[in-house]
Amino acid sequence: xxxxxxxxxxxxxxxxxxxxxxxxxxxxxxxxxxxxxxxxxxxxxxxxxxxxxxxxxxxxxxxxxxxxxxxxxxxxxxxxxxxxxxxxxxxxxxxxxxxxxxxxxxxxxxxxxxxxxxxxxxxxxxxxxxxxxxxxxxxxxxxxxxxxxxxxxxxxxxxxxxxxxxxxxxxxxxxxxxxxxxxxxxxxxxxxxxxxxxxxxxxxxxxxxxxxxxxxxxxxxxxxxxxxxxxxxxxxxxxxxxxxxxxxxxxxxxxxxxxxxxxxx
Length: 265
Known about the structure:
By secondary structure, this protein is an alpha/beta fold. 37% of the residues lie in helices and 19% in strands. Strand 2, helix 4 (75-82) and strand 3 (87-91) form a beta-alpha-beta unit. The longest helix is centred in the first third of the chain and has 17 residues, at 23-39. It comes from Actinoplanes lutulentus.
């Protein structure tokens, strides 16, 4: 439970409840939704949303007609998610899911992998996701790019601070983001893009496809009206979709989404 203890202080503040609906978080939300709507089996397939937070994605999935069970280690998140129509929310750990084998047509890990610094634990979480997913079903997992922390501290103007610079430079090498300042996130692991396929394969998930969610647009999309829900937003989403599978975009994208079909090649 050490990982959960390390992140609980950050998430107990409640910032995750609204994060994906404002600022740069909205682009992450819209692009995750965009990819999942193209890759998920048709409703009413059963979905397990592991580490689903306060239910930002569970809400639209339920509205789209999917029965959703959300599992999260934070009581505050479970309380919020459980109030959403069509969502069953329970406490749980991605590494030890209290769910039967092959019970879901899709399993989502849109947060757990970037809170597990240990590779074996990340593979364990992916194996658990595969275990509870029926043959032919979908497993989708989000990761944070290795270089997101560097660009985030530059955008915030905090990189010149000695301690911020020390931690940021170290995570470029190790991938581990230390929880030294909760304004700059909590304990996390930032994946090098080349690592992801190997972790999926070691969990028995072959033939996975990785998508660059925001590309470089997360550096500017919350400015100049790009995310106000008009034609500019749609144009931005279409532009990002056109390069989402280009490996050259993986390093600059803040988040990556990797999708595998159980039993796929």
